[in-house]
């Protein structure tokens, strides 16, 4: 069992959307993994979606993946319990956008893998750099404590052919090894259907895509390579 997070202290990079997409795709064929999403963001967008779905579909509806909420400071306790129970193959933690504060090491200490989504734009680059610094410091603590390092990946999100996006990739590619990122880099395109995963939408993607023939398959198709990578190389 591995604990993964799409993590970045910057909001709007795609953490929650990618969490829902990955959890959805990995829990369905051909992967069929047992997946839990822990919503540790006190804004609670993922748990709010799930609660709305339960209200609409009923308590007995079989969702492809499970969702639980945890306050950030309660996360270590919850993860310890889940590791003992061994019910899930993979657990995603949806992180808060801001205000990690002193909690950052507590939150990061619960993870095996952090995939850092970086969207194009200067503001995104600055905040993402700060976050990579935090990850680097966290891994230094892990090394001193003889604790396995947090495995790090960058996922360039909302990637398109604009010079803005390409410049962003160039910046991070030039410096990534300074932050201990030597592994494969992942890309996701800017896609209109991914915007449906917004925290502001009234329903979860599951409901939105219901009945729209072809849409769901196509959405997950775009995520297939990332999921194959997660299945083969990470868990
Ligand atoms: N690859 C993508 N293409 C298009 N829209 C995306 C993509 N990734 C994320 N989004 C959208 O960007 C917005 C911010 O994403 P969100 O997951 O809420 O970010 P975070 O959790 O990091 O704050 C949402 O509306 C989401 O649906
Ligand atoms: Mg979010």
Descriptive notes:
The protein is of the alpha/beta class and 235 residues long. The protein contains eight helices and seven strands, in the order E-H-E-H-E-H-E-H-E-H-E-H-E-H-H. The protein has one domain: P-loop containing nucleotide triphosphate hydrolases (Rossmann fold, 3-Layer(aba) Sandwich). The chain has helices at 15-27, 45-57, 75-85, 104-109, 122-144, 163-175, 205-209, 215-234; strands at 2-6, 35-39, 66-69, 90-94, 113-119, 151-159, 186-189. Helix 1 (15-27) packs across helix 8. Bound molecules: adenosine-5'-diphosphate and magnesium ion. Magnesium ion (MG) is lined by residues 15-16, 41, 45, 97.
Strand order across the biggest sheet? 3-2-4-1-5-6-7
Largest sheet: 7 strands, parallel
| Order of H and E elements | EHEHEHEHEHEHEHH
Mean pLDDT: 86
CATH homologous superfamily identity: P-loop containing nucleotide triphosphate hydrolases
Which structural class best describes the helix and strand composition? alpha/beta
Rg for CA atoms? 17 Å
> Which CATH architecture is right?
3-Layer(aba) Sandwich
Helicity range: 40-55%
Which ions and ligands are bound to the chains? adenosine-5'-diphosphate, magnesium ion
> Which band does the percent of strand residues land in?
15-25%
The end-to-end span amounts to: 7 Å
